[in-house]
Description:
Elements: E1 28-30, E2 36-38, H1 39-48, E3 65-66, H2 69-77, E4 79-81, E5 92-94, H3 95-104, E6 109-111, E7 120-122, H4 126-132, E8 137-139, E9 147-149, H5 158-243
Antiparallel strand pairs: 1-2, 1-3, 4-5, 6-7, 8-9
Amino acid sequence: MGYDIERFVGYVNEGLLCSICRDVLEDPLQAPCEHAFCTACIHGWLVHHSNCPEDRQVIDVSLLRPLYRYMKNDLNRLQLHCRNREYGCEMVCSLESIDRHERECEYSQIPCSNAGCTVQIERRNLDGHLAVCEYRSRECPNGCGYTILSAEDTQHNCVAELRTELELLRSEMICRVEEAKHEMESRLDSQRRHMVQKESILQNEIEELKSQMSRVMSDVRSLMAAERQHRQELEQAELEKREL
């Protein structure tokens, strides 16, 4: 839906009116036939129709385009009253800046920020309402440190509230201790498995070294036996030499 034409100051060009709702264009789109529509209006129309509501030419969502720049500029320059005029706001500004103004307008009706309160109040009166709202919160005057709602004053019991908090803290501490215990056991188990694995690897390495040492000793014995035999052969050869 477009902007209510009654809110505008002065004359509004016919070309800036939505061809469906007949109000001033809001978030406008234009068909190839140059008829303009509010985005919400034309999308709703095309759910049940496949043509332009003005001249019945066939159109599709994919054919819709933004408004011509000069028309968009004319639209943005239109002057209109704030929608909170009925509550006392006398602001008149351009269509281009109206949304920004209305988001901050002191006459806007906004909900009370206190949980449980359903009151709608003007933004300018919000602080005064919050000071007396029956759902406002405040710190317990007895010093327990709890934040309470005024509506719950008669039901608030400092001792009971503190006891409940103490039980919650105790339960939380027990849970944390259990979590820390499980985590520590998990780490110890992981380290134990790692040590066993390392021990197995070292044992295998020791066995391999023993095997290598045994082979080396065998080779040494073989070399020594060969050396003795060689020496004997040399001695025998020397004797034969002397005899000759």
